[in-house]
Amino acid sequence: MVLVYTLYDNNEKVLLKANRKLTQNYINRIQQMDIMGLYVFEDDEIEEHTPIVSEQTRLKAIKSLKRLNIDDCIYIANNIVEEIRESDSMIVETINLSTYDNYTYSHSVNVDMLSVILGVACGLRDDELRKLSQAALLHDIGKTCVPIEIINKPGRLTEEEYAEVKNHPRYGYNMLRDNYEVSSVARNAILSHHENEDGSGYPRGLTSEKIHLFAKIIHVADVYDALTTKRVYKEAMNPADALEYLMGNAERMFDKDLVATFMEYVAPYPLGVQVELSTGQKAIVVKNNRSMLSRPVVRLDSGTRVDLLERLDITIVKMLTDFN
Ligand SMILES: [Fe+2]
Is residue 117 located within the same domain as residue 149? Predict the structure, then answer.
């Protein structure tokens, strides 16, 4: 097995570098630690994977968010745009593995990455992408003003508590008011990232035409990442179901065209997941077809590779990998 992403401990110290073969010795040591899960590919099966946003940048972003260092966050948000611009592929095709510990921070980085990809796909200019990236990275910064007991509450929130959570876009907007490095467009996007197309969102209940494109983009990215992440109070949804949820709620919550574009860049069947085919066979996803992400190349238990783009008579009926 090969480790896909670099493994860090709680103090952000590197434990094991990406692309490293996992020997029994490493596995034994990892098992003694309090680690939720590892992302591994089985050897020789899947091509080496380079993350769209480098682990170093991800780590720097998490640190800056933790320290509430807005200037550093802006700098890193700009770096993230550059990295995505320079990446060979903007296809998101690995499983989202956030730990409970740093959920808020790694969620913000994921939302940033997904938002910038969507922004590039929409044809935004670099200066616009930088503003979008700043807003996406800082979209939940206002949660630092909400009492921590409410944020971390595992059970259902009372009406009052929920009302307080719903203030976080406004808190974020206000927090950044005096920082001239943050553009007003970015601040407005932060204020509106929970607005829905039909006016049922918060804090202002804006309808489609009043919601800025950046806020609409962050909304899609935010919900997708939240759905696919396991939390104390809920299981993780698999990517195919989460994409289906987005499309099912397009027009009510999300901009339909944005969701359609999003689906061209986020793989419903990430690399390494096990699926059941309509033939009754089990298979592993080994490659994604960029032109149609819903039809990947899979490898059967027998070792035979099947390109589902060429075998349209075979369909994926079920995801067998447990995402929790
Ligand atoms: Fe939020």
Answer: yes
- Ligand 1 centroid from CA 139, angstroms: 6
Q: How far is the CA of 169 from the centre of ligand 1 (A)?
A: 6
Kindly state whether residues 298 and 231 are assigned to the same domain: no
140 CA → ligand 1 middle, Å: 5
Global pTM reads: 0.89
Output the CA 293–ligand 1 centroid distance in Å.
28
- For residue 196, tell me if it sits in a domain: yes
For the chain, the C-alpha Rg in angstroms (whole number) is 20
pLDDT in tens, 2-22: 776 677 666 666 777 766 777
Q: What's the CA-to-centroid distance between 310 and ligand 1, angstroms?
A: 41
Q: How many domains does the chain have?
A: 3
3-state secondary structure of 277: strand
| Digit-coded pLDDT (tens) for 270-296 | 988 889 999 999 999 989 999 999 999
> Nearest CA to 95 among 51, 61, 63, 56?
51
What distance in angstroms lies between residue 193's CA and the mean position of ligand 1's atoms?
7
- Domain assignment of residue 68, given as a range: 55-262
- Would you say residue 89 has pLDDT above 70? yes
Write out pLDDT tens, residues 99-118: 555 677 889 999 999 999 99
Question: Token digits for 88?
Answer: 């060979």
Asked whether the beta carbons of 214 and 169 are under 8 A apart, the reply is no
